[in-house]
Amino acid sequence: MDFSKVPLQTVERLSRYRRVLADLQEDGVESVFSHRLAELMGVTPAQVRRDLSIFGSFGNVARGYDVVELHGTIGRLLGTDKLQTLAMIGLGNLGRTLLTYRGFQERGFHIGPVFDRDSEKIGKVYAGRRCYSIDDLETVLPDFKCKMAILACGSSGLDAIVARLADLGIRSILNFVPCRVIPPQGVFIENVDLSAKLEKLSFLSKA
Amino acid sequence: MDFSKVPLQTVERLSRYRRVLADLQEDGVESVFSHRLAELMGVTPAQVRRDLSIFGSFGNVARGYDVVELHGTIGRLLGTDKLQTLAMIGLGNLGRTLLTYRGFQERGFHIGPVFDRDSEKIGKVYAGRRCYSIDDLETVLPDFKCKMAILACGSSGLDAIVARLADLGIRSILNFVPCRVIPPQGVFIENVDLSAKLEKLSFLSKA
DNA sequence: CCCTGTGAACCCCTTCACAGCT
DNA sequence: AGCTGTGAAGGGGTTCACAGGG
Lengths: 207, 207
Fold this sequence. Notes:
Arc Repressor Mutant, subunit A, 7-stranded mixed sheet, 9 helices, DNA-binding
């Protein structure tokens, strides 16, 4: 598998395929044609076949795609077939909400250690997770074997924190802080900027 | 201005330009060249010039772009130069967090009426906003003159709610519910799927 | 010189259309 | 017949490279 020639947009669709397949599986559907899968996804059948063909030939001319098998395959591709533990930086409003967000658990993600700089929070337990001082990142984080982290903190000193996370083996980051963070070598960053989305909608609805 | 030939990705960058320009303005910078703006944005100078040239000729060969003027222009383009009131459906964990999210206020967005179907919540006040029954959407929503809405509810009956919102004049929707919603004619929907983002990161960090 | 604005080239992704198979 | 997988064409967005101008 050559990761370099997988379109980014295909990757983004993979999780939606998996969700659709999970629903089909629950309904007892054994196999599905690209046409039907496309309909459920809101894309073209050609798109479905192209996306899947990048990773191999999973389809059968007579029966289409095996639902259970394809669901499992995509799970393995995404790496969500086993539980992954995430670290989180920042325990404000947003951070505390994410701790109890069911969607993560359902998809095999679990927030483990959380870090903050506020001494009021350090040492306390939130939704079953102990809050550590950001100063103790280097001593605490390695125990949890996290490969991913969530940034839900303030913007000051963010680059330094990201650099430390990278040094500790964090490979990818979900960033809720609305400011540009330059990814260290080998680290992927996905930004979530809710205000930007609203501004986009505001622009589009003036058309 | 022909909206149809504005690349979607350019629209998404507009809010980032505005943020960068706001920072420059705060620092007392009067004008800026595409090269510097590109650096702050993390894009190429050609991209900056292309993006801005779509909306007009704002640059000056000798001095570059006027910071204050461009900041204002982009604000008007995005429609964030005046306060906009949003409606919100769903007052769970996420909904309550969004009510107190500072980022929205800072960018000129204000959540007005909130709706839920849980009779425990209806009539109560959360962060200064009264919670209405979703059954009263048609009688309550028109008073607020909302053009945008946020979906932070469960997935059941979502299409029906979206149709009702569209009938009441909602033009665009920020959707946190992880399921496909088919946009009614003339309505824009932006989906926020946090688990999908994590799955994407999970895939990428295996490369 | 070194800037902006922009036609043209380029690249990535999507869609078409069909060969190959059942 | 109707499906999958895939070369080839098409389209949207980015980058190149340069004309035009202070």
